[in-house]
Amino acid sequence: MHAKMKMNNYSRKTFFMNKTDKAQLGKGTTGLVIRVLRFFVNNAFSFTVGVMGAVHAVLLVIFWIAGVMPLVLFNVFSVIIYTFCYILCRIDYILPVYISIILEVTIYTVVSTYYVGLRCGTYFFLFSIIPIIIYFGSNLFKGNRRWGVVMVLVMNLITFVVLCVCFFDMEPVCVVSPQIMLVLMIFSAFAMVFSTMCYNAMYIYSAENRVTILEQKNRQLSADAHEDELTSLLNRRGFLPVVKALMGSGKKDTFCIAFCDLDDFKRVNDSYGHEAGDEVLKHTTKMIRDELPGCDICRWGGEEFVILMRRCNIANSKGRLERLRKTIESNPTIFFGKQIFVTLTIGLEEYSDRYTEPETLIKKADERMYYGKQHGKNIVVFEDNV
Q1: Which pLDDT does position 62 carry in this prediction?
Q2: pTM (predicted TM-score)
Q3: Max CA pair span of the chain
Q4: Same domain, 241 and 217
Q5: What angle, 0 to 180 degrees and rounded to 10, lies between the N-to-C axes of helices 29-42 and 44-66?
Q6: Is the dihedral of CA 192, 194, 198, 204 positive or negative?
């Protein structure tokens, strides 16, 4: 496994907090807790290394007061290790930091138990790193490599069992006062409880946030699958179910389908380029939306548009479409100072019971549009014999 794992691909991306957090950031205790969790999650490794360094700084003072110089020196060494680990975090070397935390805590637990005995409770640190092993390991390793996390947890348990067996009846090398023993026991237990609560909270928060992000991505993918990227109109996949639902609603609402095609659009692309063609399509889309508010509009393909005109019969629709045709005819697209004029041919059909599928209704409107193309273009065709 490559030793360098990017922080921005891990803690900043994996645990990226999205805009929905802002809605949760209310005033009072709840808002404060969310802010704190978001900070910890976004700076997970740096936070962990900082806390570990602070813990050993406190232990250094305790053992200095107790006069246990070997453990004073060990904690000095540990503080130095975590200082380097913090630097590694800043330059995005994550895996060495993960390994260093596990090894340092394991070795410290063994050495401290040897010098001050089991009754001081320094073995609690073995339990304090279990959430760290799981929290970071489950994100650093994927697939079968996650069995490595399980093996580390097993070794952690074996280390604890060996300590209990070897030092249960053994006198410690250094005898500390009952007060120091109590302080060490309480401090070690606090570290274990703090680690468990903190990383469980971070894990829950991160998991919920991942779900939120996935839901947003799914909604976006669903929208992308039903919308045209250039114009943000519905595409065929999004439009046909709308028409289908209206046909099968059981209501007797009248509606019409208009099939529109920009005339000689290839000439626009050939003369001005495809970027100009895109601008024409976007400008046409805006004019259709402005002239036909409340209608469902679909970019059927290329320069073709299909419009669902709800609660409109042929008479209503042809008047509105005639106004649209004139608007498009008289309002050119401005592209780098050039005016690009286009016209629109429209075929119109009203829904009736003889149409059982959206495609057949749209095909009829398409046929009328094609008839208009063959008979002069720039026209609204609303019956079969014009």
Answers
A1: 95
A2: 0.55
A3: 109
A4: no
A5: 90
A6: positive
Alpha helices in 67-146 (DSSP H): 69-90, 95-116, 124-128, 130-140
Domain range spanning residue 281?
Answer: 236-381
Residue 18 pLDDT grade (very low, low, confident, very high; cuts 50, 70, 90): very low
Give the residue from 221, 246, 272 where a domain finishes: 221
Tens-place pLDDT, residues 40-92: 667 778 888 998 999 999 999 999 999 999 999 999 999 999 999 999 988 88
Which residues, including other chains, have CB under 8 Å from residue 183's CB and lie 6 or more apart?
62
Give, to the nearest 10 degrees, the angle between helix 29-42 and helix 178-226.
90
> 27: pLDDT confidence band, cut at 50, 70 and 90?
very low
Domain containing 375 — which CATH number?
Answer: 3.30.70.270
Are residue 270 and residue 372 in the same domain, yes or no?
yes
- Report pLDDT digits (tens) over 31-40: 666 676 676 6
- How many structural domains does the chain have? 2
Cβ-contact 18, 212 below 8 angstroms: yes
| Distance in angstroms (rounded) separating the CA atoms of residues 94 and 38 | 20
Rounded-to-integer distance, Cα 344 and Cα 217, Å:
37
Residue 5 one-letter amino acid: M
Whether pLDDT at 29 is above 80: no
Same domain, 102 and 136: yes
Question: What average pLDDT does the chain have?
Answer: 86
C-alpha to C-alpha distance for 190 and 37, rounded to whole angstroms: 19
Residues 109 and 79: beta-carbon distance below 8 Å? no
Rounded to an integer, what distance in angstroms lies between the CA atom of residue 39 and that of residue 136? 16
